[in-house]
Design goal:
The complex is a heterodimer of chains A (70) and B (248). Chain A is an alpha+beta fold and 70 residues long. Chain A has a single domain (2-69), classed as Alpha-Beta Plaits, CATH 3.30.70.20. Chain A contains 2 helices and 4 strands. Chain A starts with a strand and ends with a strand. The model of chain A has no long low-confidence stretch (mean pLDDT 95). With 248 residues, chain B is an alpha/beta fold. Chain B has one domain: Rossmann fold, CATH 3.40.50. Chain B has a 7-stranded mixed β-sheet with strand order 3-2-4-5-7-6-8, sandwiched between helices. The chains are: A alpha+beta (70), B alpha/beta (248).
Amino acid sequence: MIKINIDQERCKGCRLCVIVCPKDIIIMSEHLNSAGYHPAIKIEEKEKDCIACGKCYQMCPEVAIEINKE
Amino acid sequence: MKKLFSYPDSLKKARFSYCPGCGHGIVHRLLAEVIDEFKIREKTIGIAPVGCAVFAYHYWNFDVTEAAHGRPPAVATGIKRVLPDRIVFTYQGDGDLASIGAAEILHAANRGENITVIFINNAIYGMTGGQMAPTTLIGQKTWTSPGGRKAELSGYPMKISEALGQLDGVHYIERVAVNNPENVLKAKKAIKKAFKNQIANKGFSLVEVLSMCPVGWAVTSVEALRWIEEKLIPVYPLGVIRDKSKST
């Protein structure tokens, strides 16, 4: 099972992870973090589709994404 | 639990001061990963520039010093000559390296100093608010070229990597970009090679990274990726510019 973890406080909402995800698992959230950005979040029910390609991790300028295998 | 993609050890948990969508964060991570992979964190000394990456010493978890604007190659020369067993790299932007530091980089390259230079080219002065840099494209609008850069007034975009590639002292120069995941992986490979060259005492290596500055270019983060593809890469073509290990 692949687990995506997006650090809600590091994320600055640039959307680069959203556009590179081939499975459209990541979207922008409605809530704000303490810095005033809308952080990226994963769609929980779609997380099982993740193929761990790491594209979101490669493009994240804040190194806010971690991908683990359980 | 197996970590597939995770935060590198050579990067502190500090939050970057960069704007959303800036390419600096990606290059910081690539450098940290390469240093982790070579297991050289304990003997690496980085030199931070003046520019957006001026606080790089807050982000990297190894020794980093600061140099006057444009002078990291001179400081790196001193450190590497006094401590030749250390891995010394400079991290410079285009305002730092191509403008005020043009003399330093030219002579460090010509002497073939055994250092690694990471040159971030985003075609603009980012930190000071988006003024024209030597690398700014013809027609590109900045705060100091509101009608677009004109060649007859401000000259042409400076291809510093091609210029340095003419020097006999240079071992390796490659230009990469960080505008899509494939290019990021290529950028990491180039940075890795530049460090490998230094570890093997091959001499001067430089990696030019075309990086996003969405705020300076007045585009969105996503448009900035396209901007690199459509505007920057045609002027600054990607690829190896000089590699002595292949030519001999």
